[in-house]
Amino acid sequence: MTALVKLLFLAASLSPAATLLVWDGALAWPLFGDVTLLFDLAPLSAFFLLLVALGAPLAAIPMLRDDAEWPTYALYALLLVGMQVLLLAGDFIGLFVGWEIMTWSSYLLLLRSPRTTLATAQSYILLNLLSAFALLGGILVYYSLTGGFAIQAVADLGPWQGLALIGPLALAFLIKVGTVPLHLWVPCSYDEAPDTFSAVLSALLSKMGIYGLILLLTLLPGGLAGGLSGGLGGLYGHLLDGPAAGYVLGWIGVITSIVATFKAIAQEDMKRLLAYSSIAQVGYITTAIGVGSSLAIGGALFHALVHTLIKLLLFTTIAGIVLRTGLRSFKDLGRLIYRMPISFFGVLIGIIGLAGMPPLPGFASKYLIFVSLIDARWLLLLAAMILSSTAAFLYCYRLIYAPFLGHANSPQARTATEAPWQYLVPEVVLMGLLVALGLFPGLGVRLFVDPVLTALGLTPLGSPSWGELATPYGGYDGVVVMAVFGGAFVVVTSLFFLLRGRMRQAASPYDLSYAGEVPDETTPLHYGAGMGRELRRIPLVAWILGHSTQGLYAGLVRQTQAAAGLLAGLYSGRPQVWILLAVLVFAAALTVQLLAGGI
């Protein structure tokens, strides 16, 4: 029975890929009255369905090793159904149904983790309920304006109608993306979720919010096809050579990336570091969407693809470390490079892509986003994003040093073995995909990005060859860059092994100078454990690390309680008077409306 359940679960994880391959044409499903559910596979939805198709089976393989109960497998399959319904929806009803299936199935999966606390569960469901109500409110506004639910009809709205629609829908999507200050649910849920499921939360669920933002902003009056001097600018005014709404969205993304980057540096837990890292990376994508040009949307799409692969790789690798050691804190790990070498290369490739360093594709996606900011002449935003991207090197270094290179501070770290094959198979596949995209960024642009840009009415980026990434401001050849870095790696590694016999070998890990004393086993030698503390000397960083959005929400709670107390005091005084007054106001309003209609 268990084998059958696992087989069905693995088949369900392949359903997004099957949908992507066999879908042909639009589908209309009558619901009630004149309301019909519309389903279609547009290039934008096909791109995000591709991410799900890549990620779902790779995330499912490690879950087979966990020997989970059948409700876990059923909820994961339901989650995939929700994402597919959302992405295929041609009307807001289908989108809302898929959104809710995705939210509730992921919430129930989160609850199945023994580490999930009441506070985490509450923050997850309350903020996601706010997202659902905002989405529902936007749908009701849209129906009142158009009398229908078809998503494509958004393009027919007037400027003020679009302004009424963008508020609630943008709020719904930004909560799912996890931008500051709406990110409260992200770090704790990514941290406390089942280790193999955290990869799905980071790599796939966050992309549904990105999909919603791009869908919304491309359909609003003028769309993004008008470029920086048109499009949204006609609706919301211009600011610094671009649409004001896009500029605000750009700053939301940059502030999110800066805050989350320094929060990630300060973390002592591997999964919590990756959670804040995910928030920072989707902040880059949010900024690019705000720019709205072909370069920016192309960079956002490419970075969404790269981020999906990297987060699947890193969360799966960290899950393997936790499985073998039972530890999650940096200070308890170390020296795993000798015992978990494949996992070491998984993290190494992951952090190179995460930091946006050549020769891996994180460099290509960030390059497109940076160039789009230069093209938009939003140089202050560019400087802020460079600050965030540069600071990310610190937590990337910590993620590789502390578990693999630092001093082993626990028996579990000294006796660990490599992760099981269920973890290594997706790791190797993901490493291969990242290296292939690094070699052929032009192919990635041609296959995945340009068809979406063309469908959105934007200029495709194009590329002279598979290996070249080209922009009006320059480009590079991925094959040449990969060859240079690969050659340098081979040379340095060869020299190390050739000269290793001539190097002085330490008698023990404690054979070093430590403040004029000889350290022993009680001396903490793990630099990764305290890394980032010195950054608190910088006023901005100290302020970021010393504050959190919990204070903001606590203030909202106090204000809500005060308002409720005021209303309760008024109502408890003479409730009959207030009820009579409400009836009179309603009757007067109804009379005025009837008279106006008669005239």
One letter per element, helices H and strands E, the order comes to HHEEHHHHHHHHHHHHHHHHHEEHHHH
Low-confidence region ranges: 223-238
Return the structural class: mainly alpha
Distance between the termini: 73 Å
- What is the residue-averaged pLDDT? 84
Number of H- or I-type helical stretches: 23
How much of the sequence is in beta strands? Answer: under 5%
| Assembly state | single chain
Question: Got a strand count?
Answer: 4
User: What is the spatial order of strands in the main beta sheet?
Assistant: 1-2
Helix content: 55-70%
- Describe the biggest sheet? 2 strands, antiparallel
Number of domains: 3
- The dominant shape is globular
Backbone CA Rg: 26 Å
Tell me about this structure:
The protein is mainly α. The chain folds into 3 domains: 1-219, no CATH class; 244-498 and 525-547, no CATH class; 549-598. It is 70% helix and 3% strand. It contains 23 helices and 4 strands. Strand 3 (468-471) and strand 4 (474-477) form a beta hairpin. Helix 2 packs antiparallel against helix 3 (43-65) and helix 12 (270-291) packs antiparallel against helix 13 (294-325). The protein is globular, with a radius of gyration of 26 Å.
